[in-house]
Write the structure tokens for this entry.
Amino acid sequence: MESHIPTPSPGNDAIFLSAYHAHLKSIFRYIYYRTGQEKTDAEELTQEVFMRTWAYLNHHERSIEDIRAFLFQVARHVIADRWRKHKPSIALDEMKPSEEPRVEHRSDAAVDMIIIEQYLLLLSEKHREVLTLRFINDMTTEETGKVLGMTANHVAVLTNRALNKLRKLLPQEHMTV
Amino acid sequence: MKNSLEEQLSSLQHSPASEPDPQWVASLRSKMEWTMARRGAPSYTPVTHIGKLAWFKRPFTAALLSLAVLLLISGGVTYAAQGAVPGNPLYPVKLASEEMRLKLASSDIVRTELELTLASRRMEEFRVLSAQDKITPETAANISARYEAHVSAALIALPTLPQDAVPGITETISHTIDAHIETSAAWEQNREEVDKNADRMQAGDAAREPLRQRREEVRKQIDRMREFARETRNAAKLLKESRSEEVKLKIKVETDDDGRAHVKIEAEQKNKKKEKKNKIEFTVPLNASTSSVEMFWSSDDEDKKMNEDATSATTTIFYDSRAVYPPSFPTSTLRYYYPGAQINTKMESSGEGSVSQEIKSEITSESKMEFKSKSNSGDNEDDDDSP
């Protein structure tokens, strides 16, 4: 491919902006739950994801077929490049959840959310990721498979394993199902 | 009726915790637009370093977080606020910046020392206001409550610190408190002077009485702080000494009529020469806004049996009377193996900040500390038990 100065393409802008609007929150949430639930980290990394995506769109002739999957793949790379390498030497698998939640008077539902979020931190990275993609990002097994590079079947198996693990970790009184 | 696990996970799609901050969304939008307008090389600053992964994630309330962001931006204001005393409009900024520093403290040791620093600050505020004769009973009560909260936090943190750090911190506590006691003695004398002068200058009895009452109230607070400081000094001393000697501790938590929770520690210290009974008591005020602490002693020594009642509940001490601490929440149990026996005590606490059950624990011989994070489910998987 000969090197060339990328020609501005209004089409790219439109594509990018619509993807940006459609998936910003999704990507943010994905990163948030994958990277230890720190908003500042999630913000920086989310920015990186969109900047990289824009750069890619702008410099490549090819259009992106499935931009959502693309965004998530970029997000995985960004997490691997920029976050895993720089966090202090605590393996993600060993992350300890906050032990002193400043929970003010909240509804049961809100407190349940906090509990689940905390216990998510106790899962392995792989389990946490699949549950995030499937339930928080609301993806099908096929879509999840695309992001993770697995078959839909494999995703289903992994999802069940992750759910069971989470179920085992959660305290008795939290679960009724 | 709880939803299925899948439903609960899905509900996180709307979790406020993971909701991006609208200000950030707006600023990112402009960044993107600017980048797109420029074409060619994107001019973002690549992220090369992600801030430290917090060892303890302490969820911020939305309000505190936005105030914190504001403070970071307006660094000048924060700096100016540092000398503020209650009554000064910048005082809340000062308190907020202190809260942030506590939350950002990089280790338990740093945080403990910070609590002591903040306690000293409260003393200083008291001193300044007293000297200017600007102190009202309400202000005095607030400052003293915060003072006690900071000192209590430092004391209660002691069991969780690494063994080798404890002597150092205990020393710091002693010195700091000694300084406080001296300071308060000095301006106690000062106040007597001020009061005498004020009395002499009073017009008539009608004007005198409310003012005298006010001064009495303030004096009560001063006395209370001093008393507390003395108890703390004794407590620190005893905790320090008990590392090497045999100590029997009785720990009791009760609420008084004002709604203040007291942690009472009765310590019996066995000296080689004689049996010395040291009684320490420190008060944890309910309206202070430090974090909550769960105390958990475990015992498997048959000889040192616990009361049956005491072994059946989980205790949580609330420092924030509004806090709701669901018992099913995963907490770190500060396992405080004191000299010898591990005493299993869990007390269920009920209602807003009321802690009413008695723990009778006996602890003897050789000390060991362990910090662990686990869920409150019945079966405890002791994966890493190494001290």
In short: Confidence is low (pLDDT under 50) at residues 40-74, 242-254, 259-263, 265-387 of chain B. Chain B touches chain A through 68 residues (CB under 8 Å).
